[in-house]
Specification:
70% helix; single chain; binds zinc ion; 11 helices; mainly alpha; 315 residues; globular
């Protein structure tokens, strides 16, 4: 219990991951702003209001924002605390990757995955956009990582495909199996979202799910394999439905209160409020990438534990 108070027990490698996370988080802020706008990510940071270059000493992650109290040095324009939040989030996720997987290729893989997902979630929340310049390189990276460290489901494929892999040296056998597991995850994830989108269009006659979501799941599937991709789809859909129902109920209760105040509308208050809520549902553009992305990140770190608990429940 006293571990926290002993400096000797501070894990220096975890601290290193954290500091690298701050730096990568700072770079990610630049990507979130510039990639969907088709801007180059090479030149240094600039103020979003006046365009003044940000001095290197003001650009220190987290501290720069705190020192200037969230204002630009030249124009005093407001700089969102979100920049700091993204830096801290990436730093924490990098440290957690190391603490979960040790000093390994797997830890690096989950650092890369966190970086991509956080970038995509914030871009989708901002602009309802999942840029190809993030998802497609992300998919390629997932495929590359699958031959460096086994994706979930690899052991199962090796066991059941013994005869296929038997000509390969024993220590090498897992690699084609892991590659297959990653590609299978990508196909399952993207096909499911594509199917939902097609079904939605058929029923409602409008585009519901963007092709960006399909490519997001292509990337998620390659990183996580089939099992955790299915978990991501389940949790993402649940979260999306909850958000939709929540938004409807908020509109319904607000309208109901307002209608009940007016004498003319009191008689039909309930009906009118319900009509407003339904109108909202029809117009509501769900940032589905936010739900899928955050649940993919959740599944990456906690998915196996949840699956084991769930399977144990029925044994
Ligand atoms: Zn400025």
């Amino acid at each position: 219990m006293s571990a926290i108070y002993l400096p000797a027990e501070i894990d220096l490698i975890a601290v290193t991951f954290f500091i690298f996370g701050l730096a990568f988080g700072s770079f990610l802020n630049v990507c979130i702003y510039r990639l969907p706008r088709g801007m180059s990510i090479i030149p240094g940071s600039a103020c979003p209001h006046c365009g003044a270059g940000i001095k290197p000493y003001d650009n220190v992650p987290v501290f720069g924002w705190l020192m200037l109290r969230g204002r630009c040095r030249s124009c005093r324009g407001h700089i969102s605390p979100r920049y700091m939040l993204v830096e801290l989030l990436i730093a924490i996720l990098f440290a957690v990757s190391y603490l979960s997987f040790g000093l390994s290729v797997e830890a690096i893989k989950f650092c890369v995955f966190s970086f991509l997902i956080v970038g995509l979630v914030f871009t989708d929340a901002d602009l309802k956009l999942l840029p190809d310049t993030m998802t497609l390189p992300g998919f390629a990276l997932g495929v590359i990582f699958s031959v460096l460290t086994p994706v979930g489901g690899t052991a199962w494929l090796v066991r059941h495909g013994e005869s296929w892999f038997s000509s390969l040296p024993f220590d090498f056998r897992w690699r084609p199996a892991s590659l297959a597991a990653a590609l299978l995850g990508a196909v399952v994830g993207s096909l499911f979202i594509w199917g939902i989108g097609a079904l939605y269009k058929l029923i409602r006659g409008v585009e519901g799910m963007g092709f960006g979501d399909v490519k997001l799941m292509l990337m998620v599937g390659a990183f996580l394999g089939v099992k955790l991709t299915v978990l991501t789809l389940m949790l993402g859909s649940m979260l999306g439905s909850l958000a939709g129902v929540g938004a409807m109920l908020t509109v319904w209760s607000k309208r109901l209160k307002r209608n009940l105040k007016s004498a003319a509308l009191r008689g039909s208050a309930g009906q009118r409020a319900w009509a407003s809520a339904q109108l909202l549902l029809r117009r509501y553009e769900m940032p589905f990438g936010v739900f899928l992305g955050s649940m993919a990140l959740f599944s990456a770190y906690f998915g196996d534990r949840i699956m084991n608990w769930y399977v144990g429940f029925y044994r």
